[in-house]
Amino acid sequence: MARVGFIGVGHMGGPMARNLTKAGHAVKVYDLSEEAMNFAVQSGGKAAASVQDAARGVEFVVTMLPVGDNVRAVFMGDGVLAAADPGTVLIDSSTIDVESARAVHAAAAERGYAMLDAPVSGGVAGAEAATLTIMCGGDKATFEKARPVLQAMGKNIVYCGGPGLGQVTKICNNMVAGIISLATSEAFVLGEKLGVARQTLFDVISTSSGSSFILNRNCPAPGPVPTSASSNGFKPGFRANLMLKDLRLSQAAAQTAGTATPLGAAATAAYALHVTRGHGELDSSSIIKLINPDL
Ligand code: NAD
Question: Does residue 67 carry a pLDDT above 90?
């Protein structure tokens, strides 16, 4: 079993750190938030006094932070890269821009540390149940070394390629999910407006070419899927403001890569409008409210 330092124990990191403890790893936790720290310590983590303290004397450091700037700040300067023991494997599971991920990889390599970008999908429920999909970028040997730690937090552990390619994979998936959620919303509102019952639309689309994981698990129209967020007051789930964040990351990546993402751009604009209307804390499937505010 390994010694792990876990930095950023919020909605996702908290349950992920708890699953590491459950699997028998010795986990030191650190977060700026007192509330997050309390939860992590009650879940079996040992409180670290600082980023440096969390990074010292462990074999793995896992970070689960909001955005690229947080990840740069925690690793660079006098952060993790200045404090971790030689040979420590660094795993950043935050969803961040590809540029920051690659910059942190490069800084880690310069100091002789092996690193993975390892963003996750599956939301808080997946973090709690240790069923996350974890998309890893870095070298293959590091991936194999990190596997036992990753397996305590997720179910599908996927090697995506070199530095940053875990982030690229995650952003591509979420861009598709955002587009499909919006497209499905448009279809339900249109069909119902012209007189087709919501359930009939669901029964047909879910068994036809318009079917998708989004439709079957997280149908934006309330009712047909009782366990979906839409059938439960759009309680998240995966929040609309996180979907917007990931769509924006996809647009930044598309600009760097020089590829066209017309539907990704449309979905980004739609989610931006939806969030400015005050729906950022609702599940991402609430995008249907942009098409029909009465839902
Ligand atoms: P969160 O805000 O709940 O947790 C982030 C934690 O990081 C907070 O507790 C914050 O205090 C802490 N933090 C920030 N800066 C810090 C620093 N310098 N030192 C120590 N702690 C610091 O966010 P979350 O929902 O857990 O998301 C974390 C990451 O996971 C994000 O990148 C998000 O996009 C991604 N993600 C979230 C979900 C989801 O459903 N919530 C799903 C997949 C991926």
Answer: yes
Please indicate whether residue 193 is annotated as part of the active site: no
- Could you read off the pLDDT of 162-185 as tens digits, one per residue? 999 999 999 999 999 999 999 999
The residue whose C-alpha atom lies closest to atom 17 belonging to ligand 1 is: 32
Q: What is the pLDDT of residues 191-230, one digit of tens each?
A: 999 999 999 999 999 999 999 999 999 999 999 999 999 9
Distance 279 CA to ligand 1 centre (A): 19
59 Cβ neighbours under 8 A, 6+ residues apart: 2, 3, 4, 87, 88, 89
Per-residue model confidence (pLDDT) at position 123? 86
* Mean model confidence pLDDT for the chain: 97
In the block, which residue shows the tokens 């909001």?
66
Secondary structure of residue 131 in the 3-state scheme? coil
CA 236 to ligand 1: nearest atom: 40
Q: Please name which of 114, 156, 119 lies closest in space to residue 138, comparing C-alpha atoms.
A: 114
The runs of H, that is alpha helices, within 156-257 are 165-193, 198-205, 213-218, 240-257
Beta strands per DSSP E along 64-162 = 89-92, 114-117, 120-121, 132-137, 154-161
Catalytic residue among 28, 170, 245, 289: 170
Domains and CATH numbers, the chain: 3-162 (3.40.50.720), 168-291 (1.10.1040.10)
Which residue among 9, 18, 30, 32 is best mutated to probe the pocket of ligand 1, counting the most ligand atoms within 8 A of its Cβ?
32
